[in-house]
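Newbie here. two chains, one complex. Structure please?
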Amino acid sequence: MIDVRRLRNDLEGVRAALARKGVDGSVVDRAAAVDAEARQVVDQRDDLRARKNLLSKQIGEAFRARDTATAESLRAESKDLEGQEADLETGAAALQAELREILLALPNPPSPDAPDGASEADNVLVRTEHFDPARYGAHQRVPHWDIGTELGILDMERGAKISGSMFALFRGAGATLQRALCQMAIDNNVDAYEEMRPPSLVRTETVITSGQLPKFADEQYHLERDDLWAIATAEDPLTSVARDEVLEEANLPMRLMAYTPCFRREAGAAGRDTRGLLRVHEFDKVELMAYATPEQAPALLDEILQRAIGSVVALGLPYRVLDICTGDLGQKHHRQFDVETYAPGCDMWLEVSSVTWFTDYQARRGNIRYRPSEGRGTELVHTLNGSALAVPRMWAAVVETYRQPDGSIALPEVLHPYFRGATTISGR
RNA sequence: GGAGCGGUGGCAGAGUGGCCGAAUGCGCCGGUCUUGAAAACCGGAGAUCGAAAGAUCCGGGGGUUCAAAUCCCUCCCGCUCCGCCA
């Protein structure tokens, strides 16, 4: 959610910033108009309340002075104001609700540093590392869904029998691999990030804070009977850890990490990248998240990006970094870098982490503040996050990259400790 | 799921209709004293909106009343007992 004061002080600036994300200026104008109207009505309402408060006080004094006649006449006067107050009250509430609704749907203005662009085709390639297409042999050009079947470590068919298409069933060493990847990512980041294990089913308020609701309800699994939402990412619960709280600046940045399942309906993605593990409804992920002051935020964006890259590098895989353009930035994103790794079997670059700076967009929704060590009052925090490791695509890249000519998989060394001494995955 | 009790400032905890944005204690900040610290003493400090006047905030929402932390309804959360269960 953006600051209404920004609308009041710099309407043109907000329109221009949001235009870069393709937002129609009339929506911004509408928000400003509703805000102006609401403020006017609130003003009137407050004046009336002030009059009533004064009368009440005088009534109390009159009663105490046993001046019943005065008290009664003041009481009648106060009662006369009631209808007026109720009208102003409902008017103000309606306008404020309307304003909030518009503001909740309004995207976060992009960073001036984010590249302009209309779609993902305009994302800027920052760099590519450790990538040499000539290095891959024919034995590595087998997609992971075939390898998975061949070795009996991934069973998409039975996954579909159990839960429907786009649900994975990992088996044996495949299941171990998915767990090992998460364990490794946690171990690699626990030096600075507090490990959390939050709930996977969360309240509506929690999903509004992170920004998925109200606009992206179609993407979320919802348990109607209990009115709980299945998290799409650990970002949902982690962002609400400090909801409605005031943090001390001395405790910032506050770094959190969680390994959770992630549930995505993928409502708009039917038929796209649906083979194997490229896009599934449920997957595991280790997420890094930080609460920071506005001054600390840029450095943290870089830190989380480096840590995301760290997971790929640790596994000996190539990577590339994309600077996401304004047209591809999500509603809540201010600045975003994607980390992709190369999967030789599918011959695709797979997004394995999305590192994002939300500025105070989520903090304003969730009322997450901090108390500056200098000065008075409270300020909204900035939130940032990024995946340390998203399992399915990393699983795919590892399996395809490390496939040997004999069809087995030679596990990268970092994973050996998690495999009870095994160094390869062979057929059963 | 059933029965009962509760939710007040950073924490503990008073307050049962007006003089309550809220006693008191602890903690915190500043000062006096001290070589320094502690103790003692003095003083200070909540949040949101608003240019201000002022308005709002005692778990959330609604109601009664001229007036609600206080009375009523409802939801959420916590605790105790019972039931059930990994």
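Moderator note: Residues 39, 42-43, 45-47, 49-50, 52-53, 55-61, 63-64, 71-72, 74-79, 81-82, 246, 367, 369, 376-378 of chain A lie near RNA strand B (CB under 10 Å from a C1'). The mean pLDDT of chain A is 91. Thread marked as resolved.
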